[in-house]
Amino acid sequence: MGKKVLMKGNEVIAEAAIRAGCKHYFGYPITPQSDISHYMAKQLPLIGGAFVQAESEIAAINMLYGAAGAGARAMTSSSSPGISLKQEGISYMSCAELPAVVVNIVRCGPGLGGILPAQGDYFQAVKGGGHGDYKMVVLAPASLQELYELTVEAFNIADKYRILTMIMGDGNLGQMMEPIEFKDKEDIYEANKSWATTGTQMKREHNTVTSIYIEAEVLEAHNNKLQSKYTEIASKEVRVEEYNTENADIIVTAYGTVARILKNVIKNAAKEGIKVGLIRPITLWPFPSEAFARNAEHTKAFLSVELSAGQMVEDVRLAVNGKKPVYFYGRTGGMIPTENEILKKIKDILEKQGG
Amino acid sequence: MAVVFDRPHALVDVSMHYCPGCTHGTIHRLVAEVLDELGIEGTTIGVSPVGCAYNNYLYFNCDMQQAAHGRAPAVATGIKRVHPDKTVFTYQGDGDLAAIGTAEIVHAAARGEKITTVFINNAIYGMTSGQMAPTSLVGQVTTTSPYGRKPELQGYPIKVSEMLSTLTGAAFVERVSMHDIKNIRNAKKAIKKAFQVQQKGYGFSIVEVLSTCPTNWGKSPVESLKLIEDKMIPYYPLGNFKGADLEV
Questions:
Q1: Which of A296-328 are b and which e, b meaning 16 or more Cβ less than 10 Å from the residue's Cβ?
Q2: Contact check, Cβ <8 Å, B81/A209
Q3: Which of A116, A179, A292, A321 is deepest in the core (most CB within 10 A)?
Q4: pLDDT tens digit string along B80-134?
């Protein structure tokens, strides 16, 4: 391992991407993720890559389409309103099976909303914000070390399955600073990109990157192919952290930085003799349903804590499947729940559950 | 016996889907002839639009990407930045380029993106059944301007070549027409020069090609060619707007 360096979250994403072999980045300024663009604008020209400040988020995602289709490891990043604009390209790239990484440093909405941290884009990311049946792998780091490692992994997953991978962090993650320990060398998945448009050199049939299949039978066959790829990913790529779940009376769940607040809540609760466990989904899609179903056998209740009006809680309910009650606590608008508010909610629930 | 006329290698040997009298097919041939003559089929990557030419990736023998409506210049930018040594072109119609994709074409030109655009202006949306295009002429009857295009309601047609030629990054801009043999030969020359301008790295190049849509114009193929000459050229003057003097 290399030496520790203190870095800001957004810069960690950019540095990790470069270490993963990403030499092409396309972006449009939007708070709170613009540091990614600044870092790329400085670094990419020095390594023979390209930074392009696009005229819009729509153009940026379509530049990503071109670059990924041309066989490069490439990335775009934005924040919530900008990610909404990218949905067109996300759907097209998913259909054309173009591997690339999209970063969403989530701010609060709806509309222009505000620039403070939020988790209100969960539905958009995991349920398909664009049209048609498609999935992205969605990774939700909770620390900057994890942000670094998952950004590298995002490129590997994208190349391995020819899929879009989204790094979803809230504004906290993009703006905060933590020490990072970079590896001397990254593990890079070397994909065969013989499908890419790199010029035939008159040595092979011409390649086509497309998302249009006019004939119904052909499109259904293509959709079935996409779905079986998603099934394979769901069976192989689930990532989840379980903490203190074994004898927990109640299991709290959150992703990203909110899970770090919950770990303090768990310690405070333990001082009062309350046994609280944590399930932290690291992949939001594929969702770690098995961890919830298994723990539903012994715990009394679940509580999903989110910086939203209640989005991931729906997937928790599906996973728990009525076996135990599932509660929700959320703040929006950039408000962050305190440890005390969450502990109070836990106590209220356990009182209701008679425990 | 000597072969005097053959299919260009860069054009795939399949039937095209275009309507009788449509000039898309001939324009495809011109592009393919240019790829052959410059010997760049194997090092060229094209971008197909949304519109009647949406699947021209089936017709060109070079590598192709199909883009979302209007986004071809952005897709081409991504390709070119990854492969600066390759030739990259977009093929776009008037709805694609001058309506939904206005931002993408203007900024690709402004950046001086080293790509070539073949812009088909037939003053109508063909594929979606004859709606008013940004380039539809004043008074032109379409399915969405059934009483004729009225400037007080729908404004005036956009002169794309004139507009783009104001941008410093646009190195070569020329408007040509497909209405007779002489002009088709000029169109070929302009397309060839546009590709050469890209190869030399001068910047963005575009050829606007005045084209027909007999089906949606409700005219015969011959009447359609006449209509280009009588109605379109007076509003869209032919000629080079920029880069005629560039050494290629």
A1: beebbbbbbbbbbeebbbbbbbebbeeebebbb
A2: no
A3: A292
A4: 999 999 999 999 999 999 999 999 999 999 999 999 999 999 999 999 999 999 9
Residue B166 belongs to some domain of the structure: yes
Q: What share of chain A in percent tops pLDDT 70?
A: 99
Please give the pLDDT value at position A354: 72
What is residue A249's predicted lDDT score, i.e. its pLDDT? 97
Give yes or no for residue A355 having a pLDDT over 80: no
Structural domains of chain B, count: 1
**Closest partner CB to A199 (pick from B42, B66, B80):** B42
Contact criterion met (CB < 8 Å) for B77 and A89 = no
B96 interfaces chain A, CB cutoff of 8 Å: no
Residue B155 lies inside a defined structural domain of this protein: yes
The DSSP annotation for B33-81 comes to: HHHHHHT-GGGEEEEE-SSTTTTGGGTBSSEEEE--TT-HHHHHHHHHH
- For the domain made up of A242-352, give the CATH fold: Rossmann fold (3.40.50)
Check if A4-236 and A242-352 are the same fold: yes
Q: Cα–Cα distances in Å, from A107 out to A149, B4, B35, B72, B197? A: 23, 65, 48, 30, 44
Is there a contact between B74 and A62 if contact means CB atoms under 8 Å apart? yes
Whether residue B211 lies inside any domain: the answer is yes
CATH top-level class of A4-236: alpha beta
